[in-house]
Amino acid sequence: MRVTVLAGGFGGSKFISGVRSAIGPDDEISVIANTADDLWIFGVRVSPDLDTIMYTLGGGIDPERGWGRTDETWNAKDELAAYGEPQAWFGLGDRDLATHLVRTARLRDGRTLSEVTAELCERWQPGVRLLPMTDDEVETHIVTTVDGREEVIHFQEFWIKHRAAVPVLGVELHGIEAASPTPEVLAAIDEADVVLLAPSNPIVSIGPIVAVPGMRDALAAARAPIVGVSPIIGGAAVRGMADQLLDGLGIETSASAVARHLGARVDGGLLDGWLVDTQDAREVEPIESARIAARSVPLFMNDAATTQQLAVDAIAFATELRARR
Ligand code: GDP
Ligand code: CA
Questions:
Q1: Which ligand is nearest to the CA of 207?
Q2: Do residues 324 and 180 share a domain?
Q3: Predicted confidence (pLDDT) per residue in 19-30, tens digit
Q4: Ligand 1 neighbour 7 (Cβ under 6 A)
Q5: Tens of pLDDT along 227-268?
Q6: In the chain, which ranges are E strands?
């Protein structure tokens, strides 16, 4: 079995670990990761979601923070602050910095982000094929007001510097028109037996992936069923800022509204199936009226066992939908 997962960082990496523990030794996982959180800062290229997935699956993540390295120190960040660097709000750990330095050096040598990611993964051995959604630079920006003035700021500035406490007036994906999916990404979709959307942020993680020109056509043409897992449980994002973004874009924060936003595949959208939490069981019917098959199962990834069970449920649901197609 070939499983392809579309994923952001935190929810994505947890879910992928579940999938990895749920499949057999001959099965393969390809991960198509969001790279629109990426940024240039202090001359280095940072790829937050790729690194969160790589560190989590490779055993190097700080489990409390959910990003960055274990046993991290912050000397470089403190020194930057001591110089009065205005961008010292960005969380650059000393260990993490080494990853960004290797990535940047290779990119400067003309290697693609896909090539660099494969090289970094030789160290971390994540047990999946970790694929950036594109080798082109795409960056999510948030249209907001800061001190009463309209500004367009990088997503990281919105999230880390402003802690998502400024209004969301819009989301822009800079560079998206000129971006294309990599051949590896297209093959991972084409050759998949099952395509899963991790419970990742629908606007800034799944959104940019499916906005890469050509990605929606590839997904529409896939022979695999496409099943998504709701990141919204009981009308709230489990963690992060998905609710602020959904609010700002006029989308209700509910499992069914996110399903409708992603759309039914039979109507030109993305989803054959959508998993909601047991506490959202009453949303199954309205989702099915929108021509997306739906089931309610426990969606909280509290520990390895619940996370694995969620992956088992998602694959079983997809397998059932494949038989129906
Ligand atoms: P990011 O790139 O680090 O923001 O991470 P993702 O986009 O991959 O995941 C963020 C999303 O994960 C948030 O919108 C949360 O609602 C969702 N999430 C976090 N923990 C859980 C969980 O235990 N279960 C489910 N279903 N979603 C979760
Ligand atoms: Ca992210």
A1: 1
A2: yes
A3: 999 999 999 999
A4: yes
A5: 999 999 999 999 889 999 999 999 999 999 999 999 999 999
A6: 2-7, 28-33, 39-41, 44-46, 129-132, 139-146, 149-154, 170-174, 194-197, 226-229, 232-233, 236-237, 273-276, 293-296
State whether the beta carbon of 10 lies less than 6 angstroms from ligand 1: yes
Backbone angles phi, psi at 275, to 5 degrees: -100, 130
The mean pLDDT value for 212-220 works out to: 98
pTM for this structure? Answer: 0.98
Side chain identity at residue 234, one-letter code: G
CB atoms within 10 A of CB 178: 11
Tally of domains in the chain: 3
77-89 mean pLDDT: 94
Question: Are residues 286 and 312 located together in one domain of the fold?
Answer: yes
* Rounded CA separation 252/117 (Å): 35
**Taking 80 as the threshold, does the pLDDT of residue 325 lie above it?**
no
Ligand 1 pocket residue status of 11, Cβ below 6 Å: yes
Helix (H, G, I), strand (E, B) or coil at 122: helix
